[in-house]
Amino acid sequence: MTADTLDTVEAQMVQLRAELRAAILAGQPNRARALRTDLGAAEATWYRLADGLTPATPRATRTDLPVREHVHQTLVLLGAPAGPPLITSVAEAFFSAVVPAARLGTMRRDEERSFQSQPSARPYYLCAALTASQLTPARGLLAVSSWPLEQRLVSEHSARVDYLTHTIRVAEQVQRILDAGSDPSPAAWLLLERLARNIPGVAAGRRPTPEQVIRAAQPEHDALAPADNAARHDSAERARAELADPARLLFGAPRRPAK
User: Fold this and answer.
1) pTM over 0.85
2) Could you give the CA distance from residue 77 to residue 39 in angstroms, rounded to a whole number?
């Protein structure tokens, strides 16, 4: 495995995200679903290459990675900015990793200092999600620097859209484990059940299947995503014009003092 191989897969992921965003903005849900599947497969390939694992080796056995790496792989799995409680739960459910919520509180600041001192020293940084209105750090939400700016922004519509994205991605990961002939961890099932409780159309009182959760969550996601993506796109254009400093495009403009 070489860095060139990882770079190739990362370039493919960037291209797929751009095509996915365009399909959503163009109102093409069928193409968007197909591209989302392709993106998930590319991300899974990236992880296998990065860890030097074969496709049949469970990732849940990888407990020797630094906390920073576990947070990164968790955010990539989720596909949207997330806060400490969800990051901690997903890391435990799928990677058998302990990610202390208190550690996440200082991690973004550590990442910003690292970027300021050596901007190109790392292949990615754990950065802030940015508010679409003020372009300031969204409190408690982490993102990944390799994501397109639009993916790192959160608008007034984003909380629900990102929740649905998280739920779909968790369900897809549970399904991938099942398809590989393995058993998801009890924590993975509990996480899926917890997320599914807030999805209309998922039967209460029994464990939902990943397919049931995706089938219930996808239509609502597809209905809400166009407005959210439009708001993120407009804010991204403004951010590129107003935030000339690369660090601010990742970590946000200073918050305005309260009046």
Assistant:
1) no
2) 11
